[in-house]
Amino acid sequence: MAQHEDAESRPLDGHSLGGDDVESIDPVAFPSGSNGKRKRGETVCGPSTAKSKMKLELPEEEGTQDEESDYISELRSVGIQDFLKRHLWNLNELAQAFGLDPTTVDPGRLISAVRRAFYSRTKLPQYNTLDDAVSLLKSSHKILVITGAGISTSLGIPDFRSPGTGFYDRLQSMGMLEPEDVFDIETFDSDPSIFYRLASLLLPDQNRFTPTHSFLKLLQDQSRLLTNYTQNIDNLERLAGVSPACVVQCHGSFATATCRRCKQQVPGETIFPDIRAGKVSLCTQCPAPARKKRSQNDDDDSDEDVGPGVMKPDITFFGEKLSDSFFARFESGDVHDADLVLAIGTSLQVAPVSEMPGRMKPGIPHIYISREPVRHIDFDIQLLGDCDDIVQELAVRAGWREGQLTGKWEFAVDGESHVHRLRIV
Questions:
Q1: DSSP string of 137-175, one letter each residue
Q2: pLDDT tens-place values along the chain, 425 residues long
């Protein structure tokens, strides 16, 4: 579970629009934190860093769709930084082109709008139906799969944000006003008991995985899986038999744990009993306790022992640097090599994973599988319903798995010709 959803790319933090110069416009490749650390509250739209709005006394001009299209083409050609440097002095037109009020410009909103445009994708009109989805699966041999919490919820592992049942809502019902504190590294270091009291809700059953995990293994067995970028921390892909070489755990996992003091790393299951008991797990490998004086004037009788360090699962907490493996693998290889993108069980709300579709080469088909549709990314085909049911149906229709169509459900068009919802019949 756990969508701890952020390379060396940077958002345009600390920017200033106005005056005679432009300050602190960082290069943008793949936005995350300016120091590569996971930031709380960073969503697909990016943070707004400006606290004030700038009033522009400029004549109103009507932009055209052609002008907007020209802006988008130029943006994608030169990149965010150079684009902004070229057009910051024509803010009226720039704001209009990106759907903002040209008379009152919030710098943070303007830059977020530019980022969204840069990382957006255009739907491919030739792909719309369930048969199209099956054909794409059968003809593709380098499938990039993005997975989220929705592929594990059938095991009782909660996702983070579902109303009522998500992990954050559960924490709020328990009286935690700031549920993200559970995954804040400063909070963990000052009081690890907060995490340990609640982590059992997230701990996976290491003896079970879902049909969707089996589908990932099937793609691998068919020599079709390029990489699975998982936002989950349950490590169930590997339990299902997916090779570690094919998995990038974007936000770490329970697979290992590391001592905050001596950095000794152990298999994750070593600390599972403590997690299930709600007890802070301590390192068994730390050097013998040292004696620590409380002050220079105190004698030895007032010294206190420095005990063993606290074990922390190797999950990426807010405030920790993200793994380089995500950025290195995606930007140096997969973004160029993939011939199909599947997003399964994720709402794609948090950067940088949310921006992966917009980074792919033009013409690469995208299929989305989840309970509810996404509106902020133009997928070519959306298949809505239970992930486990949908992927099993696709596998049978592709001829990869023995069995026959059950007749218990059908896919019906849901509003748009490329959106299909699985329905019981």
A1: HHH-SSEEEEE-GGGTGGGT---SSSTTTSHHHHHHHTT
A2: 444 433 333 332 222 223 333 333 333 344 444 345 665 554 443 333 333 333 333 334 444 555 666 787 888 788 888 888 888 777 777 887 787 887 777 777 788 788 777 778 889 999 999 999 999 999 999 999 999 999 998 887 765 655 555 566 666 666 665 666 788 899 899 999 989 988 888 787 768 899 999 999 999 999 999 999 999 988 999 999 999 999 999 989 999 999 999 999 999 999 999 999 999 999 999 976 666 555 555 555 545 567 899 999 999 998 887 778 888 899 999 999 999 999 999 999 877 898 899 889 889 999 999 999 998 899 999 999 999 999 999 998 999 875 544 555 677 777 678 999 987 66
- Is residue 250 a known part of a binding site? no
Q: Report the alpha-carbon angle 64-66-69, nearest 5.
A: 115
| Domain stops at, among 273, 300, 315 | 315
Residues 385 and 401 in one domain: yes
Residue 187 falls within a domain, yes or no? no
Same domain, 231 and 364: yes
Supply the residues annotated as catalytic. Answer: 251
Last residue of a domain, one of 299, 315, 331: 315
Domain containing 297 equals 257-315
* Residue 123 within a domain: no
Distance CA 313, CA 268 (A): 7
Residue-level length of the chain: 425
Is 387 marked as a binding-site residue?
A: no
Does one domain contain both 141 and 246?
yes
Asked if residue 286 belongs to a known ligand binding site, the reply is yes
3-state secondary structure of 385: coil
Identify whether residues 29 and 98 lie together within a single domain: yes
State pTM to two decimals.
Answer: 0.74
Q: Is the same domain home to 412 and 277?
A: no
- List all residues 6 or more positions away from 143 whose beta carbon is below 8 Å from its beta carbon: 137, 219, 224, 225, 226, 338, 339, 340, 341, 342
84/222 same-domain check: no
For residues 7 and 219, give the distance between their C-alpha atoms in angstroms, rounded to a whole number.
27
CA distance 365 to 367: 7
The verdict on whether residue 283 carries a ligand-binding annotation is yes
Domains held by the chain: number: 3
